[in-house]
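Per your request, structure below.
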């Protein structure tokens, strides 16, 4: 067993050796991370998993191209392939249906999965989510355009958080070191090259598909988010008929970290309603 908490279990999903965390028991909850540099499932969900796993079986993978999951030569980083990877993980774990929590990029992925395979999805939670078209923010352009250095990682961390006290040199150094592991930056830089508005649009689902989506959906956003504009969540709220929207004030792109206890309570209550 690795001493690195970011390394969990390994399983082959859609032909890819996948690093994932599997905690708790009960209704399965698939948690899909965002696309920041150096991100892993553990880094994204480290405060949420211990709480949610008291009530649910929490599954949090490193999606292909991120973290400690295999990066096969020649793999195409596309929404279609990321959805296939997530469905492959559910298949490998013999999970027929799950709640899905998607953060940022992961929110766009969660929506695309629910549209492609609605029979595999119970309820959705979208946090600062992609999934609709919006004007590329300077914050997102900076995140996707990251080049490895400690100073650049520190700047990126400041963009993510409203409360700068959450961002210290130790956190920035951990994320920087994660971003310079062999093969990581090559994969990351190939996902969202400039000009980057096209990648916002590539993560977006068609509006007619979002209008047709019949899933109970909780949309969560930080009012001061500099990465994904709050207007994107208002748009999702308008398009998804069975949705509710919760906005945290004094909160950036890290709702699950900046308001961790409120976040996990909201999500727990929302999923328990479906029981």
């Amino acid at each position: 067993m690795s001493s690195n908490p970011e390394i969990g279990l390994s399983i082959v999903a859609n032909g890819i050796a996948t690093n994932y965390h599997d905690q708790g028991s009960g209704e399965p909850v698939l948690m899909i991370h965002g696309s920041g540099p150096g991100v892993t499932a553990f880094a994204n969900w480290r405060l949420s998993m211990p709480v949610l796993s008291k009530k649910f079986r929490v599954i949090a993978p490193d999606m292909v191209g991120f973290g400690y999951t295999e990066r096969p030569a020649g793999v195409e980083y596309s929404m279609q392939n990321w959805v296939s990877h997530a469905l492959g993980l559910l298949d490998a774990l013999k999970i027929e249906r799950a709640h899905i929590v998607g953060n940022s990029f992961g929110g766009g992925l969660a929506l695309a999965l629910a549209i492609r395979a609605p029979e595999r999805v119970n309820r959705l939670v979208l946090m600062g989510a992609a999934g609709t078209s919006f004007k590329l923010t300077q914050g997102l352009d900076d995140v996707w355009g990251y080049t490895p250095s400690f100073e650049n990682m520190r700047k990126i961390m400041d963009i993510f958080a409203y409360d700068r006290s959450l961002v210290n040199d130790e956190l920035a150094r951990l994320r920087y070191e994660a971003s310079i592991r062999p093969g990581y930056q090559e994969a990351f830089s190939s996902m969202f090259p400039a000009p980057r508005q096209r990648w916002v649009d590539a993560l977006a689902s068609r509006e007619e598909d979002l209008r047709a989506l019949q899933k109970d959906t909780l949309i969560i956003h930080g009012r001061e988010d500099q990465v994904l504009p709050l207007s994107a969540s208002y748009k999702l709220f308008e398009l998804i008929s069975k949705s509710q929207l919760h906005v945290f004030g004094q909160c950036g792109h890290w709702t699950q970290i900046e308001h961790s206890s409120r976040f996990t309570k909201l999500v727990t209550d929302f999923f328990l309603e479906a029981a």
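Residues 103 and 127 are 5 Å apart (CA to CA).

Regards,
D.
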